[in-house]
Write a structure and sequence with these properties.
Elements lengths: L9 H4 L9 H11 L12 H20 L1 H5 L8 H26 L5 H9 L17 H18 L8 H29 L3 H20 L11 H6 L7 H19 L9 E3 L4 E3 L5 H11 L3 H14 L1 H22 L1
Helix pairs in contact: 3-5, 5-8, 7-8, 7-9, 7-11
This protein binds Phenylacetyl coenzyme A (FAQ).
Length: about 325
Amino acid sequence: MYTQGLDIPAGDRAVPVADGARPEELRFQARIDADDKIEPRDWMPEGYRKTLVRQISQHAHSEYVGMLPEGNWITRAPSLRRKAVLLSKVQDEAGHALYLYSAAETLGTSRAEMNDQLLTGRAKYSSIFNYPTPTWADVGAIGWLVDGAAIMNQIPLCRCSYGPYARAMVRICREESFHQRQGFELMLALSRGTAEQKAMAQAALDRWWWPSLMMFGPNDANSPHSAQSTRWGIKRVSNDELRQKFVDVTVPQADYLGLKVPDPDLKWNKATGHYEFGAIDWSEFEQVIRGNGPCNVQRMAARRKAHDDGAWVREAAAAHAAKKRAALAEAAE
Ligand code: FAQ
């Protein structure tokens, strides 16, 4: 369902290389256009490396910070089954961050450097994780909508031109797909529950709908990185196209749940075969990515505290590694 229609032929996305490109740039672009994978030791333009480090590290930070909103409910999950599922889902997100940090490290930027960029506010993470989770239904809404939007955006990344990123995305997408289903199943249980539970599910949908649409990034016309990232085969489907696919897939799911999407302008257009939806409040998005969302301060404070609290673990691991290296060197003498 989430993967349909995402295969864009290379010819349709190719944008001409700038005049005066050097031979190695032309060779590089020819490899991209032939759908060849670029590997860490291959020649690549500095801009390509920089773009990938920016996107992959932001993606890793998103998975990492993204553990916090749902993590808020681990101790209060309503049953042992729900607690076990939520625990393993949140652990999966930590794993995604790890694969992505590792993929970014292959481009020559260390994990410590990326972490420093996050903690000092120089790197972004997804706007979506700056919203609060006041009720149990928010856990369902995150799985259903946020993981649903994440998969929509990430399936095309499995075919991204950079090998380590593309390979990391395959496993991540499989896990996100499971996360989406568990969120939907949670929402289904609430929607079929008492009137109070159904109202809780509706309120969570009201809270998460618009921020989920913002996750896909600015409209194509206002997306500064899209043209170049598309030319380099990093981006395969545009922000607006993915957002539209998400709306088209998700509205019937809301109908099935008996919930109402909070958009008075939402309507099915028979001629185009797509839903038309209302205007996104981009000023809210700007505020959130500038650090002024409802939970930005709280999220960064939690990450800084976790980093500080973990200092002894990093020191112990480094001391252990040094000890092992010394023992190996001694044995080799
Ligand atoms: N939030 O020119 P574009 C998840 C920034 S993972 C914050 O369109 P691009 C799993 C953008 O960085 C969710 N900033 O940029 C999970 C750029 O700023 P910069 C994360 C945003 O890169 C689920 C500027 O706006 N997914 O959910 C956002 O071509 C549940 C201009 O934008 C990924 O990172 C935003 N929403 O396209 C975990 C996927 N959107 O860097 C836990 C990989 C845009 O110049 C629980 N990333 N910006 O300062 C991508 O696909 C792309 O980077 C886009 C943005 C599509 C996000």
